[in-house]
Amino acid sequence: MKLLDADIQSARALVVDGNPGSRTALVGMLKDAGVQRVDQTGRVSDARRMLESTAFDIVLCEYHYPGESMTGQDMIDDLRLAQLLPLSTVVVMISGEAAYGQVAEAAEAALDAYVIKPHTEQTLRQQLTSARQRKRQLKPILDLVQKHEYEQAADLCQSVFETKGACWVHAARIGAELLLNMGRAQVAIGMLEAVLQTKALPWARMGIARGHYTAGSLNNARRTLESLLSESPGYVDAYDVMGRVLLDQGDTQGAIDAMRRASALTPGSVARLQKFGVLSFYYGDPADAMQALQRATALGVSSKTYDLQGLVLLSTLQYDHRQTRDLALSQATMRRMLREAPNSGRLQRMTATIDALHALLTRSVPEAVQGIQGLIAELQKPNFDFEAACNLLMVIARLHMGETRLADVAHPIRVLAQRFAVSKTTCDMLVKAARDIEDLVTPIRGAFTELAHTTEEAVTMTVDGEPRAAVMHLLSRAETTLNSKLLDMAGHTLQRHAERIPDAPLLQQRIDILRTRYHSYGTQVRLAAPAGQAPRKA
After folding, report:
1. What is the pTM of this model?
2. What are the residue ranges of CATH 1.25.40.10 in the chain?
3. Spatial separation of the C-alpha atoms in residues 141 and 485, rounded to whole Å
């Protein structure tokens, strides 16, 4: 037995292959290389559950699984998008010649290597040796990421990048991702453009597009993505970003088409099915939404890669189609999830939403009204987020489509909209959630108009040489409405004119307190779990 490397005997590996003979051969190859702990499974769905609960140093994964809806690439994509696959894990995809194109695209996104069948033991050893050596060289960075010390990890990535140290291109990739997640788009773009000067890498171009998006340059992001996809039409990650860009540009049909394409390329990806389902629910064909969300739920409801918001939207569609039995099953599933995490405010609100829908469908209107009023009472809680706001509007809208109306509903909806109508995109989505019902839509649009007026007043004050008055105006309204756009604008104005504002530190302290309590609960349209956060995190 020739050891692969000095540390291989402490490694743990997982082999995922539906062919028993091939699986046994791969296990034997790993053991011959010195891996002492090798787990194996013939089903990709079982592999997903194993990877969600156990950290593996090496994963050897077959691409195709006859009789299963999910491919190996689908599984790896979902785990990566849900932040459930450690960067330290070496992932090697194995496929036949027919799947070479798909595997090559996957390697760009999430793999350390891929091997085409038939392959020799030496070929596999070479790929594993190279990948594990790269992980060792990046270990200081990977350890910081594992400990959630993202600032330090990004700084170290920049240092390796600037000095052209070992694996500097891979360090740049990790660093750019960290910088984008921290909102430092221009630094990330600069790093990725330097990478492109050495080699035309699709992932670097996509990172630049993400950087433009983060910086608010939607047109630049779109142009970069269109160029990338014209050359690499199978690069599925680019469609994920394109969907976001088009949605923020108001091209909802284009966003739906982008996510339809992504879902078609990875038909077993739970995350992409949910993204397509969400967009179709609000802006497209309800039949498409139902089909996508049903499939995502069937594939992934027991997985950590599944975002339970998909179950809320599916329940709403089941209500609309008067599917009493299916809605009851969805209700039971959500209640089971809540029992597993009883202190999760997010799951409590989701359960209350589905309970109210079920009560409406079974004509238990007083029970539904009571549930809705309970949700309204939480409108100004720090962890009540945009997602919860849309869900609340969906239920209120369906109540108002019947014979019952909530008394004085305009006031709570105005409170909701003042907090969450931070952009045209979010305003439009709130309107869609309210089913365009005039009594519900009027206070939403009114709140958005007020927001625009407040920001215009602040700009005028700043131009007139009164930056402190502008900050006070924005901060006062932010403290009243909890609107993150006003809070951000107050912070930016304060930083830009701090030398002219004597009490700038005290005002910054007020901003920081409010941001700490409320700003972490996003106001963006949720197409997937936020970066760095598993979908079910409360």
Report:
1. 0.89
2. 141-232
3. 33
